[in-house]
Structures are given as structure tokens and as C-alpha cells.
Specification:
four-stranded antiparallel β-sheet; elongated; about 240 residues; alpha+beta; five-stranded antiparallel β-sheet; Alpha-Beta Plaits; Translation Initiation Factor IF3
Length: about 240
């Protein structure tokens, strides 16, 4: 985590004043302090990138096989309670497969030759019940999903978590500012500006999965961990002389 060091300025500063506190420009000394607030929470939603890769002698053969497997995959997801709105196509490609001949007797390299085609079709799945995730991974692999790129976790509505982090960040900044003001022989005056920055939530390490899950008889073990939400705030106060 980044360490934010408070900065004390006892000289008049030229600063950018936010509209909420732009009634007047400070003419005296200013205290500028940064604070950090951190809140942790267990995730309540997961996003899975899963799909099917198939090959065939022709593009049509590969596509037919892929369509059949993807239909089974989507049917399984809906049977497991995944809403159709939570299944979104995220990848689709049809690519020729080549062989590269060796050089001929004259030292020339013949052009590559197409020997088949590969079709890749992938979807992003939103799983709103974390407890169902392991069973869903097992079942979709069982019906033909041979690529699961990763599993990412999130909080569906982080608003209340961010509010708590903001309160903690401001309290941290104010505590530091009061300490500096007392050390300088003064007190805190009006707030001049508040500037917030958010760090992306620290994500648990994603689960990497491949076709090795095929044939599994028990739900895939999944550990959701916790997410950390950080808010950093920089606050400027006027420094007033102690009465």
C-alpha cells in the first residue's frame, strides 16, 4: 500500500480551490494533509470467462461442433439459475490451421498449407451466488467448456463501502492536520479544498482453469477471499492563530 506523507505549509500557497469552498481565497498560512481510508469486504459476485474451442477439416465442421457444445454450455448455465442477461458473448473467432513444410530439394520453402480450422467461442458469466461457483465450473466443463480463462470477484454495490472508506480517510487527514496545527501553535480554520482519489479494489488472486477440470466429480474448490477498497483524500485547511 502506498504511504502518503502529510505536507505542512506555513506559507501562503497558490492552490486550486474546489467550487464548494471557492467563496474566498486564503491569504494566510495553509495546512495541506493527506489521509487514507481502507475497508474490506467479502465479494458477493463472480465473473467467469468460459468457452469452447473446436477444430474441424472445414470451417463449417468446426463451427457446427462449436455451436453444439456452446448450446449445451448455455443450457447448463440457465439450468443452474444463471439469468440470460448475465451471460454475454465476449469472444468469437474462426481461424485456419496451417502446416509449414520443410524446404524442398532446391532450398526453397513451400507456402504454408491449410489443414483445418479452429473456432473459439467464449462468454462472460456473472455468478451472483458465490456458493454456487464451484458447482457451476464443474458442470460447464462436463458439458464441453474446455477453456476457462479466469475467475474475477467483485462487490455488486460498493457504494456503502466507499462511503465508509471516505469517512475514515477524512478522519485520518483531520487527525494529522490537528496535530500539525497544535505543533505550529495554531488551530484549524475553514476547509479550503478536498480532493479525493480512489485506488482500484485489491482483487483476490484469480482462479486459473483449463480443461484439466474435465471429469471432476466434486465441485471445484473456490476461495473468494476479500476485496480491499482504498480512498485517499487531500484536504487543505486555513491555519488560524490560537486565541
Amino acid at each position: 500500500m502506498r504511504q502518503l506523507w502529510p505536507v505542512l505549509s506555513l506559507l501562503a500557497l497558490s492552490i486550486a480551490v474546489t467550487p464548494a469552498f471557492a467563496a474566498h481565497n486564503p491569504s494566510g498560512p495553509v495546512i495541506s494533509v493527506s489521509g487514507t481510508g481502507e475497508v474490506q469486504s467479502a465479494p458477493d459476485v463472480a465473473f467467469v470467462d468460459a468457452g469452447v474451442t473446436t477444430s474441424g477439416a472445414t470451417a463449417g465442421d468446426a463451427l457446427s461442433a462449436n455451436t453444439k457444445a456452446m448450446s449445451a454450455l448455455i443450457s447448463t448455465l440457465t439450468a443452474e439459475g444463471i439469468d440470460a442477461n448475465d451471460i454475454q458473448t465476449s469472444q468469437f473467432s474462426v481461424n485456419p490451421q496451417y502446416v509449414y513444410p520443410d524446404k524442398d530439394a532446391d532450398g526453397n520453402t513451400p507456402p504454408p498449407r491449410i489443414v483445418g480450422y479452429q473456432v473459439q467461442n467464449g462468454v462472460t458469466i456473472e455468478v451472483r451466488k458465490i456458493g454456487d461457483l464451484g458447482g457451476i465450473l464443474d458442470k460447464i466443463v462436463g458439458v464441453g467448456a474446455n477453456t476457462i480463462n479466469n475467475v474475477n470477484f467483485s462487490v455488486a454495490d460498493p457504494g456503502s463501502l466507499l462511503s465508509e472508506a471516505r469517512k475514515a480517510a477524512f478522519a485520518d487527514a483531520r487527525s494529522k492536520a490537528e496535530t500539525y496545527a497544535a505543533a505550529a501553535g495554531g488551530t484549524l480554520g475553514d476547509i479550503i479544498s478536498i480532493d479525493e482519489s480512489q485506488a482500484p479494489p485489491d482483487m483476490p488472486r484469480p482462479l486459473m482453469a483449463k480443461a484439466a477440470f474435465a471429469g471432476a466429480r466434486a465441485p471445484v474448490p473456490v476461495e473468494a477471499g476479500q476485496l480491499t477498497y482504498d480512498v485517499n483524500v487531500s484536504v487543505d485547511w486555513q491555519l488560524k492563530a490560537r486565541p
